[in-house]
Amino acid sequence: MIEMHDIWKTYSDGTHALRGVSVQIDSDEFVYLVGPSGAGKSTFMKLIYREEVPTKGQISVSGFNIGKLKSRKIPYVRRNIGVIFQDFRLLPQLSVFDNVAFAMEVIEAPRRAIRKRTLEVLELVGLHHKQASLPSQLSGGEQQRVSIARAIVNNPTVIVADEPTGNLDPDTSMGIMHLLEEINYRGATIVMATHNKEIVNNMRKRVIAIENGVIVRDEARGEYGYEI
Fold first, then answer.
1. In which order are the strands placed within the sheet that holds 64-65?
2. Which partner for 40 in 31, 76, 80, 213 could form a disulfide, CB atoms 3.0-4.6 Å apart?
3. What does 103-123 look like in DSSP terms, one character per residue?
4. Element (H or E) spanning 162, and its range?
């Protein structure tokens, strides 16, 4: 599903964000990506959805060689990758329904299919009754659920979640995590960067720890392993 072979990423200022990273993440896995700030987690995530390209090495996602992907092919690959951000990144002038539907509109899905699928995912995330609301009328947890609905509306095989509970209280965070578990159970591979020690330790999944651009630990049902 996701394979990295000897990945190096060096930015223009000389920063070595990743140094010789090799890893394989299989279909249907749920993986926590942990490590101190500046360790290379964000770069790792951005490489998956082709926001960045490696300086050296090869990365493939769902069979696509991401690093050598031609520009015209990028939108097709991103249809198979859902991204969830810590700060939600919803369009403030659009309703909940339209924020989610927008992800299908950009790939020119049929109007009837857009309505049907958008209502399905809003039901899944528990926001069917809020479809006409604006983001400003929602709580932080509700906004994150809209973000998740948008990320999954095109049935991606891979979901990248960058600190999805970072701005949420503990109870709301657990609700979001149970939702992500359900999405994983339905077949999506999830890679989630987090600093939330409690979530990682209570909801045991595979843990990949990165420090100074290098994978220092890769454990099935691992623990967070850092003091907060």
1. 16-25, 2-10, 56-61, 64-65
2. 213
3. HHHTTT--HHHHHHHHHHHHH
4. strand 158-162
pLDDT digits (tens, 9 = 90+) for 90-148: 999 999 999 999 999 998 999 999 999 999 999 999 999 999 999 999 999 999 999 99
Rounded Cα distance between 110 and 7, Å, is 39
Residue that has been written with the tokens 């691992």 in this structure: 222
Which residue, 207, 136, 203, is CA-closest to 173?
203
Q: What is the pLDDT of residues 87-98, one digit of tens each?
A: 999 999 999 999
Q: Report d(CA 17, CA 135) in Å as an integer.
A: 34
Q: How confident is the model at residue 228 (pLDDT cuts 50, 70, 90)?
A: low
Q: Which of 220, 67, 85, 56 minimizes the C-alpha distance to 147?
A: 85
